[in-house]
Structures are given as structure tokens and as C-alpha cells.
Amino acid sequence: MAEVEKLPVLGVLTRTLVKSPVINFIIPARIRHTSPKNDLVFVRNDSIEIKEVISRNTEHKEGPSAYLKDIIDKADFDSGIRSARILGKAREFDEAEDYQDIPSKPMEIPPQILALTLESAKIVFLCAFYDWGNHLRWLSRYQILPHAQSYPKQLGEHIAVDPKSRAMAVAANEGSFVLYALRPMDELKEQVETMVGIQTSKFDPIVHERIFHVDGVILKMEFLHPSKTDINEVYLLVIVAKKQKTKLRCYVWDCRTTLRQASELRSGQPVPDDERLPLLLIPLRMSTAFILVSQEHITVYTGILIGPATSRKHDLRHYKAPEQSGSSRSLPIFTQWARVLRYDDHVSKQDNVYLSREDGVVLFLEISETSHKIIDNGVAAGQLNVNINTAFATLHLGSKYHDLLVVAGDLSTGGLFFFVPREKEELMSTIPNWTPMMDMAVTKVKQPEAFMLPINGPVKDQMRVFASTGRGPTHGEITEIRYGIEGAINTEIEHDGNAVTDIWAFHDRSSKGVRVVVSSPIDTTSLIIPSNEGELSDADPHIELECEARTIAAGLTMEGHIVLVTATAIVVTSSLDRRRRLVSEMKDESVTSASIVTSDTYGCVLLTTTKREAGNYLKCARIRTDSEEIVLQPLGDTMDLSTEPSCSSLQEIQGRIYAFVGLLTGSLLVFSRSNGVGPCLQVTFKHEFEGDFAVCDSIATINDENQSWLVCGLRNGSCQTLGLASEGRMLLTPFEFFVLGNTSVCVKADEEQRNRVILACDGIFCTLEYCYEQLRLATIRNILLTNEDKPGYKQGSIRAFAQASHRQSDGNAGFAAGQWFCMEGENFNRFELRGGSQSRMIPRRMYLDGTPTRLTFSEKLDRLIVLYTRIVIRRDPQHGQPGQRVLEPTFAFVDIDKGILRPDPNSRANRDLHVVLPNDQYQRANVLTVQERKPGEKYIGMTEWFPTDGDNVYHMLIVFTMIVYDDKRAETGRLLFFSLSKNGDGQVSMEFKKITELKAPAFAVVPYGQSSLIYSCGPEVFLHTLRLASKPREWLSPVVLTLQSRGVHFSVSGQFIHVTTAADSLSVLKVGEDNRTLTLEYSDELARDGIFHLDLPAQGLIITSSKDGTITGLQRPPPQRISNSMPTAFIAEFPSSITRLRRINRPSWQLGGSSKVSRSSPEAIIACTADGSLHQIDILEESSWRLLRFITNMARRHPLICPYREKFRAMVDARHPRHIEPTTSNKRFMQIDGDMLIRLLDRGGERLLRDIVNHEPYEGDAFMDFNTAAARSQRFWELAKQAGVDVPEFSAVVYWMRGLLVSVI
Q1: pTM for the whole thing?
Q2: Residue 1282 and residue 1287: Cα distance in Å, rounded?
Q3: Which GO terms describe its molecular function (predicted)?
Q4: Would the pLDDT of 458 be above 80?
Q5: Which of 744, 1116, 1157, 1189 is least enclosed by beta carbons within 10 angstroms?
Q6: Is the sign of the CA dihedral 20, 26, 27, 33 positive or negative?
């Protein structure tokens, strides 16, 4: 008997690429700074973010502008967040327009603290503070909530905080709530001041607590505002429902006593039946009054302390009706409220509240203190084009600004809106939202059709990702998934940039704007850009910067003089005094390269390389503008160069100036300073670049406290970093090598952040950054240009870019930090980099007038085919009927580069969308409404089919549907066949060909072979073959195989058909040689509710996703096998169900370089969920998995890596074993949590890794094995050697881990 082949042990590494954009709460809070900054806390499903609203007045726009700046985030809760509130001093009205940035003292806590309740039954208190190194860090403390037997009775669903922060209440959905007495903020500040390091044990806001039991479901809970005479009383209102009755229950506590004295005032007061399920509970600032918001009216309650509360109703039915038909037949409801900051004398007389409705309608309410009546203005405050849920807040920006509303969209894009009285609201900036993400398509980046040099392989395989997102007639979108740093364009000017070779930008003191020097091969021009958004103005002709020669280098002196170096002259001129000017013309020579550096120590130093008949030369000079005359002072002698230079650069490194000269031979020469006067002209080091066309064209440096790097852009489209070391002379050590494109790489330093440079090559525009930690590899982040007015803005190739230099001390007024300029195609853009050094999702949005459900990229059509549903209202004009909602399936053929412009939403007769052309003209795009449909028919999906008959290839589109009947008849389905073609103008047409009626819905179709189709019909799988050779063509009788449940996704691999079923996971079918048999080959050993799968033939693996939020790796059984069950290689868990799995190639700089790490595969897997999160999946070999599992088992016990995990003696979760040694007994252990490992690397790297290996376990966390540091260390290095880490150093393991954890996007 043949021996059964042993399958390899495989693990899986998962990490979060993009967090879900869903925002549950937006809270104005000051939890990171003592000065009054305009901070907002965004509370997501399992993380929080602090963002600052940056606002400024502009001269060329009506009113101010505002956008969100990322500050810090926290995503290590390892649990979902249920609710959130703010403790501390309430924010007051401030007339200041621009808050001064007063630095906080080290270890000083802010005036407010954030309280969170987690699904892991914990309450967390946290704030951010600045440490002694001025780094922003989190300070937190958690407390375990009382355990409950069921989730509805688990505390944490509701949080309420007393207006004076004396008490806090946490309630469950039903049964009980706990009341906490809180410490005053002054006591908390004293606790923090006495802490050593970050000892959270001394940070404890809770004094004592008491549990209250209630009989019923807790609907709402809030603390009421006491009257001015009730100084010590705390009032808590709880709304409880039981047996279709709802009561108001009020509790009172004197804060001078213990919580034992807290009690309920009286038995609950019933509310009317139309208020049994209130949408909102709003406590008013006026003596314990409150509001209940219902569907059709608002009720103001007063006097609940002295007896049954009295009420006054205000009708809401006359407010604005929904403008859009929406996706529901129900009327929209009110979802959130926000209080407005006003003057103290105003607050004492009335309360002001905004109410938001889910369809975007916002109401402004004024409640009078004397009459407790709502002052009705008769109209809604505004209509936002946003779906609103609970993430809604207001912010005050100063007396010169109006109310700012911050709204996070629900299945739509949110935004920041300024509300001006009696005027239409104005959108300032958007808050991206790309949910729900139901389908995803991947396509390769287009390469130039004619290119002189062979295209680099890594560049050729670059990919783009698109997803179907949004819902409804005004929010449906096709979103391009882009991840990087946002470059927000604030000025866009048409300019022919095709001939531009380089640009330089300087803050201009004469015009108070920015002067941009633009160089082309034949001349140089100068532009003036206003300091604020406005029109382009001509340059001052008196400056005389224009010339008929190409500018090679430009710079500023310490006094603000502009220096230009052209091929024929050196020009130095003042922008304030036209008489101060120096022109030094070249005689019998021409400048080939130049560099200018200005430092406090050496002044303005100029390096030039020149070409004469006799050869090439290098010389250096100092430019002095501090005297009456401008002087060009030579430094040292002219030096002969053996080869023509390609570039030259002066760099100040660790207080000394060095000169770098690249040669056309592929060499790099280094010249260092000989004495205190200036650089000497002596070669101190020579480096040779390797590879074809490896000629250095540009140079920049990254300077850090401990290390410096030289970044060289090469002519062959690559970039090399060299480590700099000064040991008597400059030494260059090759560090990393990256492939970016096919043409020369331009490198420039970032004056704002010295640890990074900016790179541009072909379509790549990115940053390259090294961190202060020496063990980090270079981090490359895309720079993605955005235009707030053009959501579908497609970034072109960057031909030249520059940062506005601000050497002069008095010329920076009115300029934002980080101003950048670039030539992009035919546009000249001014933009600013937002978000610091943190990458984030920057979606490119292409609008649809409906809800997209499926999309696929057609290589043949070069179009994205989108299936979406439009809601059409069919009205009866004769009888004036309100109309009937009809779902209309529609196809859009989208050019992914030109994008789509949203049509007029008020014109329902408009059946077409438009594409945006480069010349801003519009032409019709392909949006085709399918007429072949039945009542109740829903289009489920589509697939392309290319039946082949000899040399004839037909292009078909197969659409599969489900038909739902009004009566009790069973659902049926159809297959619709269309032929596709594209004309010379790029327009795609569809022609209906055939219908196949099915007795059950078809949920999946896949082509097989040259002329066969595989499709599902209920639990049956059909193999249907079209005989093209016969005349006339005919369909053979189908081959049918019945499975346990219906197939929802198919894929083909040779003779095998992989079928994901709705209730029985994966089945693999085999097609016979003549396409006339269909047999079950093998299947999953367990039944799972399947969604999708991805075949990985190279690993002999199929990954399936299930509705329970897991993916399973199933291995193909060997030919000699015992059973037909597919062995399970691993099971990985995710917060949400995976809807799509796609293979994607890694970026070119990860594939074509020679970084110090090696990666197992040139591609990775990305997975998307309906909530918009993206995850990366990598398959691990056994040796790599064992080392990472060993590290993970130790890391999850460390408080810096997993601060909110309970002690292991209290844990009963079998997924978190107390053994360190990796085991394959549970397939869930085969998952490696990449997010946890990233925390380890980011929060300490080598130091923290050494600590988790060598430290002794905390009490109660003792390991079952390797319980001594020596035993753990020995086993650790054994596993490291098996994984390929040859050097027994923690730094080598850190390098290896960073290579595995590099993001694929």
C-alpha cells in the first residue's frame, strides 16, 4: 500500500491595512492638551482617534475654511467599543478666533478624560499627555465591570456623566446600572504629578460604586442639570420599558455622602403611548428639564423633582420631507443631538440644540427658560447631502465663525459644515466613508504604449484596487482604494508642464506671496502665487528672474536674496531692492550641475560643476549679501573631474558641509571640508552604483540624532539609500535599494520633517522616511493629491515639485506650514501635506446615481463594468398619485482614469452619467438600463464569458437574477445573455441575446473551457455547453449535480470546479473529459456558512470565508488519500465577515529592490469586509509560523503590547493558551496577529523583544513551559535559526519581522 503523502504545515499572518471608516460617535473633547484646541474624538468600532479642526479665514472664499488634522489614535483595546463619554470641566464659550498653541507641561493631564465601555466588560479611562521628550502618549486605566450571564444584562451599553463630573452611570440593556462617584480633576492631576514613568495604578478616577437593579429594558439614561440652588445634588434619569409600558425613573444623590444614600425619588412616571420608544433624551441646562424626541413630535418635561413631570409638545410633522426616495419605505427618524456653545448670559435664558435626521435634515431648537417652549422658526436649519447616524457634533471656533457641524456619514461621505443664519450651509471638507464594501476588483496599472527602455518587471505588475461602496441615489460610488499621505490641493492653475525640467519656490517678501521659478530646457520664468487661495499673478518685472537659459539650481541666502544658477551665469538678486543684483557670467565654460546650501554656520555656499573644452571641473564659492555689495567669494581651488558629472549636491551633515558629485560612469564622489573656512576639493570617498543606467541624478539627505542617510535617485528608475558615517572621513555604506519606475528618480529633502525625503518617478509620488530608531527599515508612503471640489480627481505623473523655502525670518506671515508645489501634466498645483507621517485611506470617489452591487474589470474593454440599482419614481400625471418606487438595474462602463461626474440629482429624467475629459468638456458615457426584467426581479451578479469557435472569440456578459413574487410562490431566477462590443470612440454597447429560465435563483455563474458555463440553481449545479461548431448553434442538455445547499461562488482550476455553498462550506467538483460528467471530488470536513473563496494553486490551498467572521485554509488532499475531506490548515478570525478575497502584487519598491529583508512571495492577499475594513493575509511556512507564534504567545502577556488583556489566571479563552511552545492542536493557533506584532515593533522594537524574552512573568501569568528566561532564550534562538535568521541578534529578528509585516498597499 502506497504511503499517504504528508501535507505541509501552513500558518497565516493577518494584519489590518485599513480600519473601518464607520464612526459611531464624534465628541468635542480636550483630552490631549491644556490649551483650548479644537479637538474632536472619533470613536470607531474598536479604536479611537483625536483629530484637530484646523480653521482659517481666506480672502478669496466666502467665510472661513476648515479641515481635520490627524493627531493620534489608539487601537489596542482588543475589543469592540460600546459607548463613550467625556469627564471633566465642560467647555465654555470663547471669543478667540485663533487659539494660541501654548505647550503643555510634561506629565500634565488635560482638563477632560474620555470614558469608554468595551465589549470585553471593561470601562476604560484615558487621556493623552506630553512626556519629557515632548512626545504625545496615552495615559489609561481600566476597571472590570461586574460579570453578567447574558449579553443584554452586561453593563456597558449606556454611559451618562454628571454635568459637573461628580458621578458617572454605566447601564446594561436591561436589568441594572452601576453608579460611580468620581474624583475631582484636581485630585487626578495630583495623582499624575506623583507618578513615576507611566504608572497607571495611581491614575484612578473612581472613588466608589454601587449597583442598582431595575425591572425592565433601559432605553435611555442621562444626568439632569440641577438648579442653581442644588449645589450638591446629583440627579439621574433612567427610562425603563416593560410590557409595552415606559416609565421615567429619577434617582438622587447628595455628593457629600456615600452612594449608599442614593435613592429613587418615587415610583416611575408613565409616559404616553406615542412616547414609549423615544428616539433621543436631551437634558436641558434649565433646572432638571429634559426633552424626549419621538418620530412626530418633541416633548419638553419639567418639574420631575417635585411631582409628576409636566410636558409640552411641539409637532415635527411640518418639517421638511425627504428630498430623495431613499432606500427604505419608512420615513426618516432623528438620530442624534448636539448642544451649541453660547455666551453665559445667553445660556442662562435659553438652551440651543441641533437635531439631526438620518436623511441629512438638521433642525435648530431654542428652548426658553421662562416658558420651556420651543421657539419655532418654521423651517429646518439645513439639508445636508449626508446620511446621518449617531456621529454628529457641533464645535465652536471663535466669535468670527459660525457654528461648525461635524457629521460622519452613514453609508455615505460625511463632512464639516459651517452654518450661517438665514443662509445655506457650506461644506468645508469631507470625512471619507467607503461602506458598505460589497465587491472589489483588481487591475494592473497601465504602462506607456511606447517606451524606449524595457519596462522594469516590478513596475509592470503594479495594481489598482476598486470597490463598490455607498448606498442610495446620491451616495452610490465606485471607490479606488488608495493609501498614503494626503496632498490637499488648494490652488490649481492651468500651465503647460510638459517641457518643465524643475521648479523652486520661495516665500517672497515683496509680494507677500510665493515666488515660483520654473525652468524649461530653453528658458526660465517666474510666477507669483498669492499667500491665500486666489488667482495667479505675474511676477514683478523689476526682479528680472526671467532669462533665456535653463536654470540648474536656485536658493536663498540668509538675508533672503534669490540665487539662480543657469548654464551661462550666476544671478543673485534681492526681492526688495532691485538695485542689489549680481550677475556673474560664465566665460569659455558652461555650468552642468550646481547646488546651493544655506546654513547658520557657513552662510550661503555654492557648488558648481562646469564644462570646458579641456574637461570638467568642480569649484565652490560663498555668496555674501550682508554687505553693501553682493560678493561671490571663491573657496579653495578648482578641481579637475575625470568624467562628466550627472549631478552635484552640497549637504550639511552633523555640523559639517560635504559635497557629493555623481558621474555619468555610475560613480559617486564625496568631498569633505578641509578646515573651518569651507569644503575642500579633495575626494574622500568613492561609491560605485551597480546596474544598467545606474547614474545618480539627484541627491538628498535624511538627518537624525543618531544616524544620517544619503538618498540617491538613479536614472534607471531606482533609488538607493546609503548610510553615512564620519570617522575622520565620510564613509558610505549601501543600505537599501528600491525600484520605483522606468525614468530618472527626483529626490528632494523635506524642510519640515528632516527624517524624510520626497521622491517622484513616473506615476510614483511618495515619501521615504527613516525613523530615529536605527533598527527600522525605510518606510515609503504614497503622496496622493486630492481636490475637494473633484472627488474623482485622478493624479497624473509629477514632472517637477518643490517646497516653499522660508529662510528669511520676516517673510512667512500668512503661510501655512508644509506648502508644496508641483507640475502635474497640464496643471500647476499648490498643495499641503496633511496627516504628518501617518498613512491613511485616501479614497478616490466616482459617483453613481444608484447603489452598486457588483463590479468587474474587463481587460478586453479596458473598462470597469458596474452593476448597480437605481430607484426610479414612476408617477401618474393624470391622477396626481405620489408615485411608485421601482428598482431599475443599470450597467455602467467606467473609464477608471477619466472617472465619473455626478449628474444633476434633481433631474430624474437624466439617464446618463458623464465622464470628465482633460479639456473639461463632457461626453456621454455608457450607462445602460436593462429593459429585459420582470416585476420583482433582482440582479444578483454578472460574469464575462468568451466562447471560442476556432479563431472567433465572442464577448458575452452573463447576468444572473432572482425573482421574488408577491404571492407565496417560490423564488425563481434567470440567466440573461448580452453581447458586448466597443467602437472606435470607446463607447461600449450591449445587445440582448438570450434568456434561460431557472426554477430557482442563480447566485453564481462561471465560464468553463471554451464554450461551457457552470451555474447554480438552488442546491443544484449545472454544467451547460454551447456547441458553436454546429449550424445552427445549439445548447447540449445540461449535466446536473445536487449539493447540500446552494452555491454562492464558483471558480475554475483545470478540470476542477470550486463551489462555495451557503451552508456547507467548500466543495470541489471534477468535470469529465467530454464535459458530460460532473462528480464530487472532495469537500470541507465541516459545514460552514460560506461567502467567498480564493484558490492558491502554488500552495495547494483554498481559502474560504464564512459568515461567522472567519477564513479557513483548506488543503487539497494528496492523490493517495484516506478520505475525501479537505484537511484544515488554519482558521483565522476577523472582526467582521470577509466579503471578498483578492490577490494583489506588492508595490514595486518591495519587489525590485535589495532591502535588508527578504519576503516569501511577490504577492499577498487582501480581504475586504462590508464595514469597509481591509486586511492583508500572508501564508507562512512552518518555520516562520513557529517563531512568530512563539513571540506572539509571549507578547500578549506584556502590558505595553496588550494593555487591556486580563491576567491569564482569570482567562478561560481556549484561543489564548498558557503555553509558549507553538502547537498545531487547534487550527485557530495557526493565525498570527500581525497587529499585535506591529505594536511590539512600534513600541520598542529590539528593546521590547528582548524584554518579553528575558523578563520574568507577572504574578498569575506564569508560563506552563519555558518559565525561566534562560529556557525561553534558548528555544527562541533555535526557532529563529530554523526561520532563516542566521545572526543571533535581536536586531536581526526585528529586521526579519518588519519585512514580513510590510503593507501591500
Answers
A1: 0.90
A2: 12
A3: nucleic acid binding
A4: no
A5: 1157
A6: positive
